[in-house]
């Protein structure tokens, strides 16, 4: 039995001409950490607030632990929510802020103390229990807000962009604490809303990537649902491919020349590029888009197949890595990620190699074609960061 189920969930606000949330069907298992991510306005927080009972459901069924909860009050759903703002009582100590909700429920005082101290230990708040919120840093205040949720011992934790108000270093630190919290409290399901795909990739057991705009009405709100590396390796469409990954995937217009069940050849201007995808469902000369991630593009001497040329348009030296931005003859801007310092100069010609096993292909409707590369071969360059060695590509 899943911990949380969404069955044909729709949400339309009064007077709106279209659904904000459309046709959401998801199953979240007990103990899973699921992240809702997507562009602004896609409905991430709206979907989260439906689980909390803070938003009405226009149609469909929402279930928690096998029980339909569409009309169940928030206080009886067994959920606890951590908001973007800390919302701490300024006149109460850390201890009292964490204990307040339990006291309102008239929980026995010994139980209150046990739960507060247990949560305090998990979040390393023991030295801060007697302090007021004004004496805490932003990261400490957010930990208190999380502690206030923990003491309720809910079946479901809901996080609504809890790190948005923190600076970069505190975001990383608090993100690690939330990941540890999930490990320590393994039986509770967690739903986490963020616009930051790095948070999504590092925290989630599964990601729900939500569509925005017209795609919601055409395809439904969920663009893709699955483990982070599944979305990274096998995006179902161009939107998912472009959203997951930083910097985002490069896209180059091409024309399909020929295909068999294991690979396809597409022409980028006059250059033949082999991709290990199944394009047998497309006719010859079909317009397609090739996709390749910045870390897989290689700067090489001039060659034959899968090699394109351009001019260096911009260069970013970050120390541990460099980003080289190359303008191709067709006008596309391709990002190349290199380890260390790049030895190229703005304005100079450059030759790029697209490894066939790392190329994605999308049809005219932006749907991804199935990749035929072995999972092991695919995993090495994408997961471990191993440079893909250039091999001679023979185009029949």
From TrEMBL:
This is ABC transporter domain-containing protein. Gene3D superfamilies: 2.40.50.100, Nucleic acid-binding proteins, P-loop containing nucleotide triphosphate hydrolases. The keyword ATP-binding applies. PANTHER family: MALTODEXTRIN IMPORT ATP-BINDING PROTEIN MSMX, MALTOSE_MALTODEXTRIN IMPORT ATP-BINDING PROTEIN MALK. GO terms for cellular component: ATP-binding cassette (ABC) transporter complex, substrate-binding subunit-containing; maltose transport complex. InterPro entries: AAA+_ATPase (IPR003593), ABC_transporter-like_ATP-bd (IPR003439), ABC_transporter-like_CS (IPR017871), ABC_transpr_MalK-like (IPR015855), ABC_transpr_MalK/UgpC-like (IPR047641), Mo/tungstate-bd_C_term_dom (IPR008995), NA-bd_OB-fold (IPR012340), P-loop_NTPase (IPR027417). It holds the Pfam family TOBE_2. It comes from Rhodoferax koreensis. One of its GO terms (molecular function) is ABC-type maltose transporter activity. Residues 4-244 form the ABC transporter domain.
